[in-house]
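Marked as duplicate of an earlier ticket. Keeping the data here for the record.
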Amino acid sequence: MIEVQLFTQSHEKTILTFDNNVLEYFYGTSNGQSMRYHVGQIKSIELTTDKTGKHTLIMMTKFHTRKEAVADKALDKTKELVTEVQRAMQSTAL
């Protein structure tokens, strides 16, 4: 299992976990929202860095796109998560 807290300065304090082909988003909002995706539902996932050095995790599914800010201290762990999700996407064909 890989777990990473993307950005501690956000009020949502987004945490992502990846385990057994399931990527799960947990948000620290008052409604306790979370989202689960099987790798077969994910069209793409990538980590980008803009010209000012801000990092963004971008995940696309058939129906929507999720974009999350990534702190510098979470960058290495987020790269690991993206690599594992991409690997699972290649080995799982639904």
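See parent ticket for discussion. The helical segments are 75-91.
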